[in-house]
């Protein structure tokens, strides 16, 4: 690349991350792997060596050098300096491979301690990653005449939790299920005024992208609840909420995802105020009258 065609490098970390998100769909597969790690783990870039970052991102160190140069830097160190300045100012293993590690290192007490430690980290990251976007997501959802929520396979419990709790005080919340191959028929109900919340983490399901794409085609606003700012559904979204899926076990954790939707519903309840309280009282009363709950035992 000649000096005349070399792009000007971003002057701040925010500008760099914005450019990476904008350029992400056009990058090569190797560059996407490197860019994804830069976007999702900015604190690691300032703390770890290029070799460590490359290993974590699943690419060769030379890929990070070339990615840096494509962004206008002379090399990796110039790009890394933006992450270091920001600090001063203030994809996934196969399940079977992870399962072998769990079996090899089995020990109930140790495994429980590791699980608790990792979940603390996952939950702590929620605030740092979503302080600005959580209110934005709540505003979008609260203003919509209808809210549709979708999550498939391991993400279904996250979607169902949001649907179940939110529907306690709002009737116009709909769970997209796609039972018996009816996903396309359910998506026909989407209108331009609606908001669709989609949740997915790597490896991403085909259905989640189909829902997000259909929502965009219908003119809906899309809220993505996902593990990466450049996940397929995040690239389709108007607002992205992030949760970590780290786990010492063989399967990614949904704990932080469930906590995220609980916090989101809390924001929605607060926005609706007294109206939500009245609706919630009516729902609870109906559940008790219809025998949904066992009567309270008296001593």
TrEMBL record:
Keywords: DNA-binding, Glycolysis, Transcription, Transcription regulation. Residues 14-90 form the HTH rpiR-type domain. Residues 137-274 form the SIS domain. CDD domains: SIS_RpiR. The keyword Nucleotide-binding does not apply. The keyword tRNA processing does not apply. InterPro entries: Homeodomain-like_sf (IPR009057), HTH_RpiR (IPR000281), RpiR-like (IPR047640), RpiR-like_SIS (IPR035472), SIS_dom (IPR001347), SIS_dom_sf (IPR046348), WH-like_DNA-bd_sf (IPR036388). This is MurR/RpiR family transcriptional regulator. It comes from Cupriavidus campinensis.
């Amino acid at each position: 690349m000649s000096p005349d065609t070399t792009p000007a490098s971003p002057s701040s970390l925010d500008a760099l991350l914005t450019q990476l998100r904008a350029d992400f769909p056009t990058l090569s597969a190797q560059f996407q792997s490197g860019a994804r790690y830069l976007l999702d783990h900015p604190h690691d870039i300032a703390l770890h060596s290029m070799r460590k970052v490359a290993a974590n991102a699943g690419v060769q160190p030379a890929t990070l050098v070339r990615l840096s140069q494509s962004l206008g830097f002379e090399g990796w160190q110039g790009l890394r300096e933006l992450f270091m300045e920001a600090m001063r100012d203030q994809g996934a293993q196969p399940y079977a491979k992870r399962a072998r590690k769990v079996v090899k290192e089995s020990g109930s007490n140790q495994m429980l301690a590791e699980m608790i430690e990792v979940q603390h980290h996952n939950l702590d990251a929620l605030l740092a990653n979503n302080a600005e976007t959580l209110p934005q997501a709540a505003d979008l959802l609260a203003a919509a005449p209808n809210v549709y929520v979708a999550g498939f396979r391991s993400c279904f419990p996250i979607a169902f939790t949001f649907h179940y709790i939110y529907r306690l005080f709002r009737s116009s919340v709909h769970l997209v299920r796609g039972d018996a191959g009816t996903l396309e028929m359910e998506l026909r109900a989407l209108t331009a005024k609606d908001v669709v919340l989609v949740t997915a983490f790597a490896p991403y399901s085909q259905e989640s992208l189909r829902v997000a794409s259909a929502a965009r085609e219908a003119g809906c606003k899309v809220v993505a609840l996902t593990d990466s700012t450049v996940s397929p559904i995040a690239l389709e979204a108007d607002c992205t909420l992030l949760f970590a899926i780290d786990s010492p076990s063989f399967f990614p954790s949904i704990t932080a995802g469930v906590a995220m939707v609980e916090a989101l519903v809390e924001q929605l309840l607060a926005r609706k105020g007294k109206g939500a309280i009245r609706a919630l009282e009516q729902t609870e009363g109906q559940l008790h009258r219809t025998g949904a709950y066992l009567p309270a035992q008296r001593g």
